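> @MW can you paste both from yesterday?
MW: sure, first one:
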Amino acid sequence: MKTEPIIILSTRELDKMRHVGRLAAKLLQHLEPLVKPGVSTLQLNDEAERWTQAHGAKSAPLGYKGYPKSICTSVNEVVCHGIPNAKQILKEGDIINIDVTLIVEGYHGDTSKTFFVGTPSPKARKLVDVTEKCRSLGIAEVKPGARIGDIGAAIQEYAEAQGFSVVRDFVGHGISNVFHTTPDIPHYGTRGRGKRLRPGMVFTIEPMINEGTWEVEVLSDGWTALTRDRLLSAQCEHTLAVTEDGVEILTLPEGETFF
């Protein structure tokens, strides 16, 4: 766990986070119609980079700790950090998580969604529905005075009650003009444990929910994480801020309501 002080953002900084968060949400919306059988994950990446540059933003993943592409594309059993590839062609029934992070004026907007390629299997649809519900339940715990453990407990309780498991190896994180910072936000845990939430804290909630075991393996590329049993995994993510009376989702698409 990280030990550096938690960053509390100013009103001006929160405005910058709102702007870049809305732009990241628009990028995901732009990519959604392109997710269909026959499209390569590299095509998705290249269109994301084109769109990002056209909107005056930068891709945070590109070059981050050596990551070679602009977005992460995690298909089926890939938990996270899948690298776009010209040879990886989407096919009917796949699920794909697309994870985007934009930088505008130095601030980061980080969001992801798992999309269906054509018509999903019943188990894939249930997994994605449960993952989105887990994110909602985690976000609903966010308010001043709550504990970080409350978020993870809400997610874990629901996921496991539905017969799924919660990845331990990757967690949510603080984010601002730094891509990954304090606090870590596990998607599992115990109520009443962990640091208290305070207004001005900004972080991601991005549960990774697996069909089978929660255990993962990372490939030799150093990035691609797969379920150990090669069963399906789904993820969804929002960047959010703790407010004086609750929570504000910074990557919510324009016109959408959450609660």
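MW: second:
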Amino acid sequence: MKQNNFIWADLSSYRPEKAKQFYENVFGWSYANDNEYYTAYKTDKPVAGLYETPDKFKTIKMPAFWMSYIQVNDVDKSVEKARELGGIIELVTHDSSFGNVALIRDTLGAGFTIYDGNYLNARYHNLNGGLLFNELHVSNIEKAISFYEKLFDWNFNCIDKTSYEVFNADKEHIANIHEIPETIRSKYEYWICTFSVENVDSTLKNIKENGGSLIFDEGNRKLCSDGTEAFFYIQNINN
């Protein structure tokens, strides 16, 4: 796995049993349970995680959300650098066998997780129901770019004044950043996941039949809700 690339995502859900059933029906996922953390599989490939929203998030009425994970070489060094850049360190967990994990909020408040082990990997080429892409929705794109450029050594290509493409050190396009008004984005700043599907229209029909809904239609890509207030994109594999 490559340093500073997105490699995993998991869902914090208020209704994990309903969410599990939804994604099983929509993406064909099956699950393995490890101490109430559910690893989702498509065939024999791990594609995502799912767990019940912790009490501390329920207390502050944090909505359900998909969390993006980024591979790093050394969690402790990345945490130190993020703190120097003004990021907020929410959690650091050390595990010599699995790998170290840290939950960080950037200078605008968008949360992401970094990981320095070799067990989490959900990046597959053209996998129906797999993690395809990640993007950041924020209120101040210049402030976001300054933080991530220094933390991960990412490069940025301007699409327009409110949108940038994100490239890793190998010049691979790994994400996008969009500046979005609060009237559309709501009060939160966040990373959001896109999952690949063979046909967005038939998948959307399946989403609606299983209690989800369409939030925004971009044609070959659609922003959807899973019916438990978590949002994600679907996009055709070949687009």
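> thanks! Residues 32 and 39 are 5 Å apart (CA to CA).
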